[in-house]
Here is the input.
Amino acid sequence: MYWEEEKECMSRDDLEQLQLERLQSTLFRAGTNVPFYRKKFLDQKIDFEEFGSLDDLRRLPFTTKDDLRGNYPYGLFAVPLREVVRIHASSGTTGKATVVGYTRNDINTWSHLVARILVAAGLTKDDVIQIAFGYGMFTGGFGLHYGAERLGASVIPISSGNTKRQVQIMQDFKTTALVCTPSYALLLADYMYENNIEINALSLKFGLFGGEPWSEAMRSEIQSKLHVLATDNYGLSEVMGPGVAGECRERNGLHMAEDHFLFELIDPKTLEPVGPGEVGELVITTLTKEAFPLIRYRTRDLTRFPPESCPCGRTMRRMSRVLGRTDDMLIIKGVNVYPSQIEEVLLDAEGTQPHYQIVVEREGRLDKVTVMVEVMEAIFFDQMKKQRELVEHIKSRLATELGITVEVKLVEEKTLERFEGKATRVIDKRTL
Ligand code: DLL
Here is the structure.
């Protein structure tokens, strides 16, 4: 079953022709309307009007998250704000978020692409879809919502959290499809088992998950515990949100929406393309976005493109599940956290030393973060009260900065590892 068969099953020749035409108009739009790109093209003597082949893509400059931050908030928009009907943002690292805008056409495209992944997973307009992604600046909630409405399904916009209510609604409203992060799906499953909720009495059939890394083992567990067919869905707010790539029922890689984006894999060190089937950093160029076109955006996500075609009939190539990230961004309970954010808070507090370690573990179903920081001798051997106050202070600052709670442990001076070269601050013990 397809949402847009003529597009999803297009011949490669037709697809490449379409991509080239769309790339030309994207380059024109970006090169004309976005000063950042105009300057880059000028500096690199790129005449986008003479852009004749998709291979020329390799001559174009990359765009990075720093470029987005440097142009905060609207510097990279290619249309005036009066044409922007929606603004989303991704959690910031140094206080500045990355801001993205959508025209009415962009929202329309986005809805279609999300409807595609829903249909690829097997959903129809008869489904009752419970969207337990956060609604707000995060693209997960609204992205899935618009796509599900476009499909014509019955949408329950419950948003994230409040597990007891999620389960109640799931029972009463006869939810057939659950949409959330994989870790939240497991938490829901555990809650149901602990509370003796009869899974077979639910109407659940599908689970659409994404927004954070997960593993095949986790998929098997979710599928057997919740009795759903679970698919993986990838996207990022800078590029659009969910809908960039998603699995079909084969569940063996995520079909990329190649008619709306160009996907490349590069070696993050040499910036050259990797060989067929090899792992590389995913680089995405938007082909149809009006408000926020991006040229060769470095996602920092590592994946590979399996060379085999998919038995489902879609001709859009697939990417493997995300294998890791080139940078140090941690995704804790679905929230993007950078060690630098933690560092700032730690170093700001009185009595701490600039030596710390972040330990990430998975306790049961949940990510647990413990931040260990060295404190001055006077504090370490001082009264417990002072130590407790410092811990509480750091904890509450981190909760405000990061939006998640972490454990804080004060340790004696010189107990944490020192480094001669680059420091490894993060110990990620989660095995996915
Ligand atoms: O997470 C968009 C999204 C929402 C996708 C809901 C799918 C479902 P951001 O908050 O900007 O956007 O985070 C993007 O999350 O670069 C990846 O590192 C990671 N990520 C997203 N989906 C997956 C996935 C949304 N299926 C960042 N597997 C990306 C692994 C994922 N990592």
Observations:
- The mean pLDDT is 92.
- DSSP finds twelve helices and 20 strands in the chain.
